[in-house]
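User: Let's play a game. I give you a shape written as tokens, and you guess the letters that built it. Ready? Here's round one.
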């Protein structure tokens, strides 16, 4: 069964150039329109060669993976001709710098510094979490658990924002505009795959999503890329109702592969809803334990439970 996975020959550089070429309207590139239908979408190879001031044969060899010898100047020219965004340009350069003999990164979940954990706990009015570049959730505070999901109830391998977005129905239902959120996740994952092609955990996540989600397969094949940025998301929360949050993603100086993601209210209505949710979660946490009336192994009724 064809799930449109990565090119079998590992030619991501050529495939990325091809998809960007196919997605660029020739009129946006400044080429004249002579009327009639074009046989291929986007730019032709010879048009890209003309705009980038390189030979047609060189573009063909790059797209077919028959050469990996490409200079920074040529990459800049191709990126300019294809009107790449800064994130797409970064991804392109990452692909070109890949060595087939690059050692794979060791698997495993990185540690979170104790002071970062303390910072999360002290952010009483702001749901926040520490996430890895793969979007693994490494640590979170009470507010994040109340707003998104009880990460502590999940096995560590399932504490991944992108995996939850595609494969967890309850998590997916939080997002009123799920397709936009999910496509942003794919773009972030695509960027990371270009930066860290030898990461076995990242590759395993991509393989699982390709296998289990038709939407992921379709969007992954589009080669859209994006780095971390401020986002605004409309949530439909089962307790707090509808609210709009801004997601700030802040780099952690001492841990280059980690981000602090903080969720703040976008407007006054959302501020009230978020405040209610945080108070509700605090009250639920402080509620006295319920007494169990289940008999113990000897047949006696004893207090307990949670």
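Assistant: Ready! My guess for every position:
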């Amino acid at each position: 069964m064809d799930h449109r996975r990565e090119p079998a020959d590992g030619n991501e550089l050529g495939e990325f150039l091809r998809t960007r070429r196919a997605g660029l309207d020739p009129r946006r590139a400044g080429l004249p329109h002579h009327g009639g239908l074009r046989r291929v979408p986007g730019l032709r190879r010879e048009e890209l060669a003309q705009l980038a001031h390189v030979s047609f044969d060189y573009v063909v060899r790059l797209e077919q993976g028959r050469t990996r010898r490409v200079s920074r100047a040529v990459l800049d020219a191709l990126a300019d001709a294809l009107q790449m965004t800064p994130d797409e340009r970064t991804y392109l350069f990452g692909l070109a710098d890949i060595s087939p003999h690059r050692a794979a990164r060791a698997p495993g979940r990185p540690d979170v510094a104790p002071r970062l954990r303390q910072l999360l706990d002290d952010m009483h009015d702001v749901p926040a979490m520490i996430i890895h570049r793969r979007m693994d959730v490494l640590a979170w505070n009470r507010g994040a658990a109340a707003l998104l999901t009880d990460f502590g109830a999940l096995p560590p391998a399932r504490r991944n924002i992108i995996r939850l977005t595609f494969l967890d129905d309850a998590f997916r239902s939080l997002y009123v505009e799920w397709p936009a959120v999910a496509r942003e996740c794919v773009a972030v994952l695509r960027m990371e795959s270009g930066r860290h092609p030898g990461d076995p955990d990242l590759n395993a996540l991509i393989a699982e999503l390709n296998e289990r989600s038709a939407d992921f397969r379709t969007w992954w094949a589009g080669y859209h890329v994006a780095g971390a940025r401020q986002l605004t998301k409309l949530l439909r929360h089962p307790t707090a109702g509808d609210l709009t949050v801004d997601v700030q993603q802040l780099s952690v100086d001492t841990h280059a592969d980690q981000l602090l993601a903080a969720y703040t209210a976008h407007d006054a209505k959302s501020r009230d809803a978020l405040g209610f949710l945080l108070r509700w979660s605090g009250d639920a946490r402080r509620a006295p334990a319920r007494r169990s009336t289940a008999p113990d192994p000897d047949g006696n009724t004893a207090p307990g439970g949670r």
